[in-house]
Amino acid sequence: MSRRKIVAGNWKMNLDRTQARELTAAVAARRGTAAAVELVLCPPALYVETVGTALAAAQSDIGLGGQNVHDKPNGAFTGEVSPPMLVDLGCRYVILGHSERRTLCGETDAVVNAKTKAALAAGLTPIVCVGETLAEREADRTAAVVTGQVQGSLAGLSAADLEKIVVAYEPVWAIGTGKVATPEQAQEVHALIRSQLAALSSAAVAAQVRIQYGGSVKPDNAADLAAQPDIDGALVGGASLKADDFLGIAKAFAG
Ligand code: 13P
Fold first, then answer.
1. Is 171 inside any structural domain?
2. DSSP of 11-62, one letter per residue?
3. Fewest C-beta in 10 Å: which of 28, 44, 59, 240?
4. Is residue 1 in some structural domain?
5. Given pLDDT bands bounded at 50, 70 and 90, which one contains residue 57?
6. Which of 100, 1, 2 has its CA nearest to residue 44?
7. 185, pLDDT greater than 80
8. Is 195 exposed, middle or buried, given 0-12, 13-18 or 19+ CB atoms closer than 10 A?
């Protein structure tokens, strides 16, 4: 069982086009020492092409991803972006069900499930996000909430599709707050997610799936997270906007 570590930068709604180009070039130029780790950049949709062009110019192996996608390939959906459009611009990944979309845009597990299937059908690797709020953790509901999100978001996926996806555990209380989950807290939920994946398919399939941790990951806390057996990478927000910080995290996961 060897899962290649994967560290993805979720830039959220940040940077302008020049900054996006410069950050991409800086990450690509200094990526060398973390070569064992798969890296992915997820810029705002409007900058996907800019970042893709910068990665190609640098002859980089860094992957490109969207932050969201619609569940239909085309049609009368004003303002939306489809899975084939992301593929057309060179994306291999797409973040789905981020807590900001669940909370701010009302995305339910059923919506995330439809998007996950659509992304897979287009050949994208979905990075499916789950995680509990502070109130849910304090009410001892973490396991129930995360189990429900995993089962709902991944319902009906074949074993072959499940094997391809990435899951990101992002406790909502740790996102953008500077409050990182302890490695033990994170490991406990990652192990739970893996057992849920096994229940949805088999232990063999679950053992292939990479599970990222997200929520205030920084270069100085990444190594302790990376040392946990079920933490296979990170989904990085704020720290992914600085090349040194993002690559510092990647290095920690390279071991
Ligand atoms: P921060 O790393 O800024 O806490 O954000 C985490 C996140 O939401 C990544 O998707």
1. yes
2. --S---HHHHHHHHHHHHHT-GGGTTSEEEEE--GGGHHHHHHHHHHTT---
3. 59
4. no
5. very high
6. 100
7. yes
8. middle
Q: Is 70 a catalytic residue?
A: no
For residue 226, the SS3 value is helix
Residue 168 pLDDT grade (very low, low, confident, very high; cuts 50, 70, 90): very high
- Of ligand 1's atoms, which has the minimum distance to the CA of residue 174? 4
Question: pLDDT tens-digit profile of 120-139?
Answer: 999 999 999 999 999 999 99
Number of domains the chain is built from = 1
Question: How does pLDDT run across 222-238, given as a tens digit for each residue?
Answer: 999 999 999 999 999 99
Please answer whether residues 121 and 163 qualify as being in contact, where contact means their C-beta atoms are separated by less than 8 angstroms. no
The pLDDT value given to residue 34: 67
Q: Residues 136-165: pLDDT tens digits?
A: 999 999 999 999 999 999 999 999 999 999
Determine which residue's CA is closest to atom 1 belonging to ligand 1. 237
Report the C-alpha gap between 194 and 211 in whole angstroms: 8
DSSP code for 239: G
Burial class (CB in 10 A: 0-12, 13-18, 19+), 33: exposed
In a domain, 232, yes or no: yes
Q: Which domain CATH number covers 149?
A: 3.20.20.70
Q: Check if 7 has its Cβ closer than 6 Å to any atom of ligand 1.
A: no
Element (H or E) spanning 127, and its range? Answer: strand 125-130
In a domain, 168, yes or no: yes
Indicate if ligand 1 lies below 6 Å from the C-beta of 216.
Answer: yes
Report whether 40 contacts 214 (CB < 8 A): no
Please state, in angstroms and rounded to a whole number, the distance separating the CA atoms of residues 42 and 44.
7
Q: At what angle do helices 142-153 and 183-200 cross, to 10 degrees?
A: 40
Give pLDDT, residue 173. 96
